[in-house]
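hey so i finally got around to running the thing on that chain from the lab meeting. sorry it took forever, my laptop kept dying and i had to restart like 3 times. anyway pasting the input first so we r on the same page abt which one it is
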Amino acid sequence: LLAIEYEGLEAHLHLEHQGNVLQSLLFYLNRTGDQGLDDQLDWHIENYRKVRWDHPPLIRAGIDYGLGLYYHSCGDSGKALRSLNRVLNDGEVRRDEDIYHRTLVLITLLHAESGDRSWMVHSARSLKRYLVPRKLLQCTDAILLDYIVDFRRSRSEEGEYRAMHRFVEGLRAIRKNSDDRVAFEYFDFLAWAENHMNDLYETNKVA
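ok and heres what got predicted. didnt touch it at all, straight out
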């Protein structure tokens, strides 16, 4: 009996270790952009897929969110959205968890990135319906929602650029406030917005 209990404990600790290693690896890669560990990451992802449902809800949500960030940084929005939607569709992840909130925000951002106005509006409405009743509307969330409204109303590339410029200026103001810098801990909204503003500027200049 003791041998069986020990084997169960050993398996549990091994699974916990695997989850912690993958989360740490994703956190490091998403912070540094280091591509030298891609092979190691692929191996961990393959193992994770085999035992995903054996992990506690918050662990697999953290891993799936980290994978969403990673695939987004690699330019694969399809894989990023699939990973993030696993968090939203996981019935064991509570809706009041911070990871659920962050996932909704990132999905909204990805749809904003796509430029698909219908998806942008759909995601923004879903995010607002989630945040407002829970009194979770933070500075970055409010500015992102305002940007989507401005973008949707724009009728030209110049209008889209002005909407992004207002978004960037709002994020810069938040970053100056030390109390609000935590909003950039998991995803650098400002770097993302500045890159897209530069892209829009180049497009307008060429046009």
